[in-house]
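Exercise 3.2. Students should predict the tertiary structure of the chain below and write it as C-alpha cells, then compare their answer with the key that follows.

Predict this chain's 3D structure.
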Amino acid sequence: MASPSAFAAVAAAVVMMAAAAAALCFSAAAAASPVGGPHMADLSVLLPPRMTKPVEHRLIGFDGCFTWAWDHHDIISVKPEYNDSSRCSTSARLASIAPYSGRKETSVYATDIISGITIHCKVFVDRISRIRIFHHAVKIDLDEVATLRVHAFDDEDNVFSSLVGLQFLWQLTPRWVDTNSHHLVHIPLKETHLSDCSGFCGDMNIRFELEDRNLGSDLFVVKGIEIGQEVVNAQLFEPQFEHVNDTITLTVAEAMSLEPPSPVLVTVGAMVKFKLKVFRQKVPQLLTYHHSIIIGM
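Answer key:
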C-alpha cells in the first residue's frame, strides 16, 4: 500500500501538469487571436503591376510600433509612415513597381520594436482581367451626391486590393438618345467630403493629381441634377488595357415621403388624408395637394 507522502507527490505532479497544459492553451489562444498582440489589417494583398505609375496600397498595423522589411525589392517598394508626435510607424505605403511578367508573389514584414514580434503580409501581383463599377444602389435622389468606385478582378475573379494610381476615363451619357439633357453631373473629388482624409492623404492626393490632369481615378463622384436615367461608363486608360471597361445605368428620382408615415392603423370606413412631402436642395417641402383614401370592407 502506498504511503501518504507518495499520494501527495502524485497529486502535486498532476496539478503541475494541469497548470502547464492550461498555460500552453492560453498562449496558443493568444497567438491565434489577432487582438492578442501586434497584427496587420491585411493578411494578403493583390496589386496590379506597374503601368503608367506604380499602384499603391496602405498597409496598416495595430498594437505595435513597427520597422518594415520586404522580399523582392524589384517587385514592390515599402515606405513607412510616421506619427509626427511619437515617430512611431503603424502604417506603410506599399507600391507595385515592376511591369507585368507573369503572376508574382512576395511578402512584407513588420517587426514591433517593443515586443520583437514580426508579422507579415503576402503580396501578389497579377494583371487585371476585368473591372466593374460599384455603387450601393442604381437609384439616387435628386440633388444627392453618390461616389462610384471601380473594382478590378484577375482571371480567377480575385478582387484587387487597390487601384490607386491607375488612369481611368469616365463618361456620362443620357439613357435616351433623343435628349441631350444630362441627369448627372460630375463633382471633382477636391470638392467632396473625400478631401477630408484625416492627415493620411496619400491615396486621395494621387487621385486629385489625376483629375487635375483631366483624367479619372478609381473613384468618381456624381450628383443627380434632373429626373431620368444616365449611363455611366468607366474605361481603364492604360497601355494595352483600353479594352477593359464597364457600364452601369443610374436612375435619378425625386426623394419623397408620405405623412402620416406607415404603418397607419384605422377602422373600417375611416377616411385617411395623406400629404406628399418632397426634398429639394435637402430641404423638405410640403406639396399643396392632398390625397384621401376611404377604407372599405
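Discussion points: Confidence is low (pLDDT under 50) at residues 6-34. Helices lie at 4-32, 202-212.
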